[in-house]
Amino acid sequence: MNEKKVLLIGDGARENALAEALSNNKVFAISSFINPGIKNVVERTGGKYFVGNINSKDFVKEIIKQVNPDFGVIGPEDPLFHGVSNAFYEEGIPVVGPIDKDAMIEKSKVWMRQLMWKYKIPGRLRFKSFSNLAEAAKFIIDYGGSVAIKPSEQVGGKGVKVVADIQAYLSNEKRQALSKSVDEIGKYVADDEVKVIIEERVDGPEYTLHVLTDGSSYLSLPLAQDYKHAYQDGIGPETGGMGSISGPKNLLPFINEEEYERSFNIVKMTAEAIEKETGEKYKGFLSGQMMLTDLWGPTIIEYYSRLGDPEASAIIPRIKNFGEILELMAEGKLSKAKIDLVEEPSVVRAIAPYGYPLNKSLAKGQKFHIDLQKIKEKGCILYFGSIALEGNELIAQGSRALELVAFGDFDEASKKLDECMAYISSDRKIIYRSDIGRTINEMVEKAEIVRYAYKNREKHGILGVSADWSPNGGLW
Ligand code: GLY
């Protein structure tokens, strides 16, 4: 047992996975409710569990003074946006997680896009930002090409709308409907001057590359893919992620070694650009939520200033020495880290209460019953997410409650997950997707088409050069 003390911030399944990975240390944690999985690690390792506002710098500082940890680990983005990482540094404690200035790469999509253009980072998309929503709707109509409209700030992957067939918007009614949806998207960032960002639309298989840096060295993790849509076969509203896959080895079956290297280079260039822009070294996870597109090959859709969730649940248990890697990063010795990887893939299935994601008040309060012993015997790992231990009961908090993980070839792991699901029940219906890990061939085919197109562009020297079919395309 390593006698180091670590203070972990956060309350989701990603933080449960982090707590397990850190369990060679004494784990102290701050969550906004009692997460049963984190509680178990804290008790096993002789730490202490605090419940409170994880976004309050003052509250976290008080706990840092009480615990005097050797290092800290911050899981979610909100504490980073609120300067909780700064609180650690102000108390002289190293931490995994960027300071607020650097976390702008995730907080503001406009800041991110401007940075990518200023420093000519490959994989960038054309964009426009608007504070006036009527002007935003007009721009879309005038432009005439396909676009993605998003809230200008990070709001947990929600509110994204794609306008692909502009012909469908030529009637007055449809134009009004479009203005209404732009208004709706604008509401996600009610306090901000810039409300929406419009980006040129791209298509292709998505994947996430997480890179850990201590400001000098960079360590890129195995790829993962997040399944964003709520319901089976990728339909329904976007969520934080209903499941994920990772592997085999460092890759995914539809991303090759060269594309992995290019993706890594994009993320590294971005970390260096952030330092030039803010004057502060980026320290923590910088994660590219990427897409293989015909425009660029590897392309940035968004950045996270942390590990993705549920991507983290697919990756962390595959890295046998993840806790040590985090410690090395915090100490500024990341150059010494080498990943000890389980080569076989993993599949993660998120489980949410009925009502998620559209009706959170219906979803909150649902009781779950779990036979943890049987789940282990069947070879699955269970991480607790948005579910609290209240007395002896497991009560859903309104978001994704559990993440179930299995190793093996994608089919084999998916079958294991089916078996383990038998030991999770609730008095109401539960929401999950059993197709996760079962759509690999489709993704491989999609990637082959896109790869042919971007390689062709590259051959002709037009990688990243947009060609608008619209006569009004000069608007960007
Ligand atoms: N998987 C999406 C997110 O972490 O935001």
TrEMBL record:
ATP-binding listed as a keyword: yes
Start and end residues of each ATP-grasp domain: 113-330
Functional pathway: Purine metabolism; IMP biosynthesis via de novo pathway; N(1)-(5-phospho-D-ribosyl)glycinamide from 5-phospho-alpha-D-ribose 1-diphosphate: step 2/2
Any single Pfam family the record assigns to this protein: GARS_C
Entry keywords, A to Z: ATP-binding, Ligase, Nucleotide-binding, Purine biosynthesis
EC number of the protein: 6.3.4.13
NCBIfam families named in the record: purD
Protein name per Swiss-Prot or TrEMBL: phosphoribosylamine--glycine ligase
Species of origin: Acidianus hospitalis (strain W1)
